[in-house]
Each structure stands twice: as structure tokens, then as C-alpha cells.
Task: structure prediction
Amino acid sequence: MVRLGIESVLESQESVLSGERLGLITNPSGVDSELRTTIDLLHDRAEFDLRKLFGPEHGIRGSAQAGVEVEDSTDEKTGLPVKSLYGEEKHLRPEMIADLDTVVYDMQDIGCRFYTLIYTLAYALEGVAEAGKRMVVLDRPNPIAPVAPAGNRVPDSHASFVGNYELPVVHGMTVGELAVYFNEEFDIGANLEVVELDGWDRDVWYDATDLPWVYPSPNMPTLGTATVYPGTCFFEGTNLSEGRGTTKPFELVGAPWIDAEAWADSLNDEGLSGVAFRPAYFTPMFSKHERDDIEGVQVHVLDRESFEPVRTGLTMLISAFNRHDDCEWVAYDGDHFIDKLAGGTYLRKTIDEAATSNGAVEIADGIIDRWDDERTSFLDARDRHLLY
Result:
């Protein structure tokens, strides 16, 4: 059994948090192995002085959809004030924690740079450092840890809340390791302590830990979703549906102008490892193409040990644009959103200029080869901060 950071605090390391005025950054994924929330566990124990909660994207209880600003509130169960870190302000400002000694972070990450929860962590480290306070990260497993780091690093020129701190698409780190990476690699200098996992092996998938899966955001319902997400999330930068509004977000991809049978056949002919594509027909209940009848594909991971999510997602993206003139890039705050996801303009421009006669997987491999030096430089940096 893997013992989580919160469980180590409760069972043997109470002194890490006892006697401190605490703030907690968390969401529904902050639970122990018996599904008791970190909020309740800290609030109900006399030795802990939990005074304030901080909510990331989707809110402290996880009810808000992607991209929806969350307002400050009061937690109905505990009566504690809740400060939003996904409203007009995304940074943890010193004045927010002036009455605290320690800020605790306990949320489940999914191992991909697009996931905003890790930037809430980074911004909190910066705020803690500025305020002269302390940060304690209660570590959790990286659910897709066996997936090798992949993709380019995000340069400062294209940093955003879906890509920053020179992370590649797949980083292969726990939140505790990410905190150390952020803090040391970027000279944040926060007073940081990580309560490490006990019994965790980075070569295992989340479902081998015997820990229950609590979705960390509304469109991350399963480990299967997290497995494909590093590749199919690129479709968020397009006018195709990435499956939001269905029961299979990021596993279903399509649009009204897609021929499901033809696209599935074409993708299966690419010979991608560990994956097959099924013609799919679906109707999103919200988000892109709301209540429209859509054709597309469902991504079925047949062998996750050989499956390469980034290579697969890029191949799907290239294939869609090569086959369908109706595919377009969508804008966000006046820029191409795909450039934020891709960490620059190279991916978009390469796809726009790609010859349709070339196989999609060959073009994808060329992009991945172009990114390889950046991936390698990240591995060199990552090795300095691994805890397991």
C-alpha cells in the first residue's frame, strides 16, 4: 500500500503542521485512502489550526467547469473562508496569508503540463516566499508516471497558465517533486517542506497503488482519461470537440464535418503503438458543438506500456487538419490557443504547411525529433529534483 503525504502527517509526522496557523490549497482530490477529505482531517483534529482554504480552477469542491472564474466564498461544511485562486487573481498574494504561518498544498496532479493545478502550486510558492511564510506539500503519486517525459519545453515568451516553468508536455514528476523543481530551478527560494510518499514506485500506474481515484477536475473522470490527455488536449486549441460534454472527455474527438469511419480507418493505418481508433458518434451536452450530432473517433488504449500519448495526439491533430478543410485553430485572449498549449508557434505553423501527401505519423515524428533536445535538457534538470 502507498501511504500518502496527508496520511504520514496524521500517523507519524503531526509536528510538521501542529502549532501552526494553517491555510490549505485543495480540491475534491485531496483525500486519504479512506476518502476522508484533507479539509475535514485537518479541521477536525485539535492539534491542527486550519484557518483558511484556497480553491484552484474548478473550486474547492470541484463544481465549476473549465475556465470558469471562481469567486471567494465560505465553505458550508466547516465555515472556513475560501479564497479563490482562479478568479481575477491566480496568484497567492502575501496579504492573503498575512495571518497564517504555513500554507499546505494537497491535490492530485495528472502528470501533464497543461493541468492548471500545478501552476497554482508554483504561484503559491512565489507568494509564500514573498511573504516569508512556509509551504508544506503533501505528496501524491503521479498517476501516469510510467509514461516517459515527452514534448518541448515552454519558453518564457509563451508561458501561460496552461504551460510554464519550462515543463515538457509529460513531466513524469509528483507534485512534491514539481514543488522542489519550481522552487530550486527558478530560484523562488520558498521555505518548502515535502511530506513524501511511502511505498510508492514511479514505475507503476495509479491503479497499481490501491488508492481510490477521485477525479481532480470535472473532465478528468478516470485514469484512462489522464492517460490520453497529454495528446488529445491539443484539440482544445481547435474547433473540434475534445469530448467535453460527454462521458468520455479527451477519449472522444470529432466534429460535424468528420467522416467517422474514414478517419478511424486512416488513423488505424498509421500504425501507432498500443492504441486503436473506433468510429464514434456523439452529442456533447456542453462546450464546443453543444447538442450537435458529431462524428469522430474514440481513442482506445490497448497497451498502455507501449502507448505514446503525445505522439498519438499529434498524429490525430495532423491527420484531422490534413483531411478536413473545416478544421481551424481557435483564439483565446486574441492569440491562438494552440500556441499556448504547444509552447510556441512551431506546431501550428508546421501543421499549416504540412504536405497532405505525407503520413501524419511521419510529420508527428519530425515534430517530436525537433523537440528532443528540449526534452533531454529537461531530463537533466529533472534529475536534480527527484525524490523517489
